[in-house]
Amino acid sequence: MLFMSTPIRRFLSYVFVAALLISSPLRSFAQADHDSVAEEVNAAEHELEHRLEENEEDFNIGEMIMHHIADSHEWEFAHGVVLPLPVILYSPDRGLEVFMSSKFHNNDHEYQGYHLIHGDSEEIVPADESRTVYDLSITKNVASMLLSAIILVLIFGSVASAYNNRKGKAPRGFQSAMEVLILFIRDEVVKPNIGPNYQKYLPYMLTLFFFILVNNLLGLLPGAANVTGNIAITMTLAVITFLIVHFNSNKHYWMHLVKPTGVPLALLPIMIPVEIVGVFMKPFSLMIRLFANMTAGHIILLSLFGLIFIFKSIFVAPVVSAFALFMNFIEIMVAFIQAFIFTLLSAMYIGSAIEDNHEADHGM
Amino acid sequence: MSLLTPAIGLIFWMLVVFLLLVWILRAFAWKPIINGLNDREREIQGALDLAEQTKAEMAKLKADNANMVAEANAARDKIIREAKEASERMVQEAKDKAIAEGQKMIDSARETIHNEQQAAISKMKEEVATLSLQIAEKVLHRELQDKTAQEKLIADLASSARLN
């Protein structure tokens, strides 16, 4: 490979430079008059770059890992098998703009005044830098999230219909499999931590658990998105929990913040800031825990696979595969544990905010 | 650092999708599932309660049955005992009566016999007296007819009186 690659590479770089030389006058000409010609050249350029990339011998494991755990405007299932996703942009001056991500060919290619920059993560930036644009695209993570939502609705829709159609009968098949998890969340997580008024919070808790679980498990599939390992997702979940806690909290909870019981008066100037920081640390820890656990799992798996490409030896592959298999099992466990912990801690925070006695929860 | 910067679009879609998901699942999944589970729990509890109740009722019925059997046995024993007593009493009474009757009959027979005897004896006495008188009359009549014999006797008597 190494002997072969150098001439091919040299040849390709020649072709590329030649293509660039040809295209640059064409491009200026095309931008002025014919968009279609520019399109063609762009496509040719894209293809060239693609072929160049294919023969790229420098394997940058850091880039590869970041590319896999970051969000993207297209869904790459495998190398070259790409599903373009819709780009939705909102800007105050132009309003809503919708087009497919396949319109962008490379970093330099401009479409409707936007560039798609493949940096640390993908970003759509307007050519005119004074404009503000909000990117509301259906990215890979959004698409995966929608998929998980559809899966959840189908699964629990069918389970619910089983409960409606088979009233008064023993649960059967998939219904009993899901029932175990639902009962576990209700009886072991929600009921003991929230207390007697748990019914009101049960739908949110169950949705939270199964949403995180399904997205964690989907994220383990090859070519899938890393939804729960994305900080925007975990932040939104943590903020929702934070809002539920504070909209339902009673006066004991607030009293505990400004005047913790059993604390000497002299310590109050220290304790009150600590308590207030604690209020924000709880959702912050929720956000970081899930994000870090899922991202770390993906990084470990990708690093293991990256070893094959770093050593370029077929003998490394079985060892790495065995390790990766082991890690995958651990990741399946982590997927359940993290969904459980997020739900458990949310239940504990809600429980501590609505409980009647004065002994608020100091832990976690 | 891009890993730690939340994307605004993702937050927007996450909020929309997640809140819709909570709403849809609450209405179409969690409510029927939780209701179904609660109904089943109630049914199971009800069935267990019913079983417990039935068990208690069974025990009560069993106790009642035992009581009834015991009562019936007691009644039977009492009836048998009474019947036995009655029969014994009747037999005894009949025996006593028979004995009394017999005694009475014997007594009356004895009295009758005694009376008859007395009557017969008195009648015989009369007859004997009459007969004796008639015999004596006839004897005397005959004895007194034979003079020689009388004289001989007197002679005999007189001879014996000399010896003395």
UniProtKB/TrEMBL annotation, chain A:
Keywords: ATP synthesis, Cell membrane, CF(0), Hydrogen ion transport, Ion transport, Membrane, Signal, Transmembrane, Transmembrane helix, Transport. It is found in: Cell membrane; Membrane. GO terms for cellular component: plasma membrane; proton-transporting ATP synthase complex. HAMAP family: ATP_synth_a_bact (MF_01393). Key component of the proton channel; it plays a direct role in the translocation of protons across the membrane. PANTHER family: ATP SYNTHASE SUBUNIT A. This is ATP synthase subunit a.
TrEMBL record, chain B:
The chain crosses the membrane at residues 6-25. It comes from the Bacteria. Gene3D superfamilies: F1F0 ATP synthase subunit B, membrane domain. It holds the Pfam family ATP-synt_B. It is a single-pass membrane protein. One of its GO terms (molecular function) is proton-transporting ATPase activity, rotational mechanism. Residues 37-89 form a coiled coil. Its main location: membrane. Belongs to the ATPase B chain family. NCBIfam families: ATP_synt_b. This is ATP synthase subunit b. The gene is atpF.
